[in-house]
Predict the structure.
Amino acid sequence: MTETISDVEIPDTRLVAEATELVREAAPPLIYHHSRRVYLFASMRGREQNLQFDPELLYVGAMFHDLGLTTKYRRTDQRFEIDGADEARRFLLSHGIDTVSAETVWTGIALHTTPEIPLHMAPEVALVARGVELDVLGIGYDAITDEQRGQIVAAHPRPDFKILAAFTDSLKDRPDTTFGNIKADMLEHFVPGIRRGDFVQVILGSDWPE
């Protein structure tokens, strides 16, 4: 039976069911519910903008976008966005999805914390960013009605949303991977002694002669 939340259908396919189970098992409830809200908000923003998107690809992009914050899928040698993107690509290819589609989802996850650029790309890329922006930053909040938001939050609760703590806990042992990224703001704000990377110092300290 197809699940519908606030007029948004969750695709009733094996791919989606297995993606849901993977994330449910790997992620804490905070990340699981956040990821589902991202799909729902992303779908609504896509309909509002008359974008033609593949619901399965968007679902995997939304559900896997924060897998890099989980114990099972996190690494310490690359940006957390790439952790989730790599697993999404592996998952899609193992389910017979074509390479181009898998790379589109990879790109959407890898760029979901990069402002503006994703919005000029394929709908499945742009909408993962739109969903994250709405759920985390409140960008586009008024594009969703109070009733729609209420229905989504009833299905996927958002009590005392502690995403800042989740990001900080997962990234504090790999601060170098946040260089040039908005996550550096969180580490500098919440982890004593950590200072964000400085592009000017990198340029001045390079091997190029003056």
User: Anything to note?
Assistant: The chain has ten helices and two strands. The chain has a mean pLDDT of 90. The beta strands are 3-5, 8-10. The longest strand covers residues 3-5.
